[in-house]
Amino acid sequence: MLNLAFDTTAQSCSVILTRDGVTLDKSIQKMDFGQSEALMPAIKNILDKNGLKMKEIDLVTVCTGPGSFTGVRSSLSAARTFELALPEIGLTGVSAFEAYMEDLAPDELAEVNAVIIETKRNDFYFQAFDVHKKAIEAPQALNYEDIIDKLRNHKVTFTGDGVERFLSKPSGLSLHVINMPDIPPIAALARCGIERWNKKNLDYPKPLYLRAPDVCVKA
């Protein structure tokens, strides 16, 4: 089974191609801007290098956010374009929270596992998971103090690209493991998609926006 997974929601344009769960090729371009312009050439390059056409792909796995409004929209637009052109292709969406959690090894899991994603504001995107990688609550945009209150009195593992800023001041929490990846793990995103394919539980991708876009309308 060929799975093409990609993500433009954070500070990268990431693409991976797997066959039966084994990585055939991947491209990770770290960038602050221009992810939407880089995505389609990156996909084409990977397919060309491996002698494949898009119609041969069985599953497209796309990151649904949270992240930049433009980045989320770009990934989902590309995925839906493939679906419209090739309706036989499977399509599923995976959140960045799920990808970060999937990337944790069994010995890294704690009673509570907190995924902290950078917002580039004063707050953070946050979701907590249990030791079985099941979500404890819905994702939210929260300030530092509210997250600390939720995690107090628990053994906690942290992961996500917002962890470095979040832990830049003493938290007073009981910490198990601290992971500080700078972008969502694309291989873990692909694994989440494959798991849904195997369970015949493909969720149609919907954007995970935790706040309204930053748009100024001139009078």
TrEMBL record:
One of its GO terms (molecular function) is transferase activity. Pfam families: TsaD. GO terms for biological process: tRNA threonylcarbamoyladenosine modification. Gene3D superfamilies: 3.30.420.40. Residues 36-132 form the Gcp-like domain. Keywords: Transferase. NCBIfam families: T6A_YeaZ. This is tRNA (Adenosine(37)-N6)-threonylcarbamoyltransferase complex dimerization subunit type 1 TsaB.
